[in-house]
Write a structure and sequence with these properties.
73% of the residues lie in helices and 0% in strands. It has one domain. By secondary structure, the chain is an all-alpha fold. It is globular.
Length: 278
């Protein structure tokens, strides 16, 4: 009876953590949307980052939907918040891509998707095609069969999302380093992303505890979600250090100076420096 009460409390806590992480991670996308709209520019936004986001969230949406429907696929516990978050993130990514088309500046050589980024995305989808070929078409592999380590096309998509998340932050961090600035990269998005990562990790651990306490001999973590949480926390801390410690915005020197005018002047001077270097 005590165990049941404890599990009920943990389930409520998991539910709360799940929706906190959903709103934090989901709202984090709107910071970049607003930043692009406010500046009428996508300068400072890594196109590789968005390319990885598109593939990653498409993989993650399929992974969550399939794992939620079929518990035997070996994805670990998947909550409804995971599905809603992945789907919402995919939609917002498409909107940001629309902004990239509208605000595209052909004179800015950094506004392009690199060849390594394109190659990796092609390899990810080619690997998925091979998995589907073996599972669905040739029937050479049963994805629900009990094995020591489960691996199938759905889990492949989950790890593909982890891979794109691990890589996607690197171009943005390097772009900030090159420019010695975080202008154009929304720090609000970073803070919300960090919050989402912490609560997503918390929910995953709670779900594991619940699974191990009642009749589940082999409780498992949602490893894709677990890895994504750690990756986002690590890089968000790095971005915060870049924004506030390494490349902080210069403050107005005179009290009478309009901060908005100073911000615009600083931004223009940075763009001029970039073009002169190119």
């Amino acid at each position: 009876m005590i165990m049941d009460e404890e599990n009920d409390e943990l389930k409520i806590l998991s539910f709360i953590f799940g929706w906190i992480y959903f709103f934090a991670w989901s709202i984090s996308f709107y910071g970049q949307l607003y930043e692009n709209y406010r500046r009428k520019s996508v300068s400072g936004l890594s196109f590789d980052f968005i390319n990885y986001n598109l593939t990653g969230f498409l993989c993650y949406t399929i992974y969550n939907v399939c794992g939620f429907i079929n518990k035997e696929l070996g994805t670990g516990p998947i909550e409804i918040q995971d599905i809603v978050f992945a789907s919402h993130a995919l939609i917002i990514t498409f909107i940001i891509i629309t902004q990239m088309v509208i605000y595209y500046d052909k004179s800015d050589e950094q506004q392009t998707v690199s060849n390594p980024s394109r190659t990796l995305v092609i390899c990810i989808w080619w690997g998925y095609f091979i998995m589907i070929l073996f599972e669905k078409i040739l029937k050479l592999y049963d994805p629900t069969k009990e094995t020591i380590f489960k691996f199938n096309s759905v889990i492949y998509l989950g790890f593909s999302k982890v891979l794109t998340s691990l890589i996607k932050y690197v171009p943005q961090a390097f772009l900030n380093y090159q420019r010695k600035s975080t202008v154009g990269w929304s720090i609000l998005s970073v803070i919300l992303d960090l919050t989402g990562g912490i609560f997503s990790l918390g929910q995953n651990i709670i779900d594991f505890i619940i699974g191990s306490s009642h009749g589940n001999k082999n409780p498992s973590l949602n490893m894709a979600k677990f890895a994504l949480s750690f990756i986002s926390i690590f890089f968000d801390v790095l971005f915060i250090v870049q924004h506030y410690c390494l490349y902080p915005k210069k403050k107005p020197r005179q009290l009478g100076e309009d901060p908005r005018l100073h911000y615009l002047t600083t931004e223009l001077s940075e763009l001029e420096d970039e073009r002169s270097r190119n």
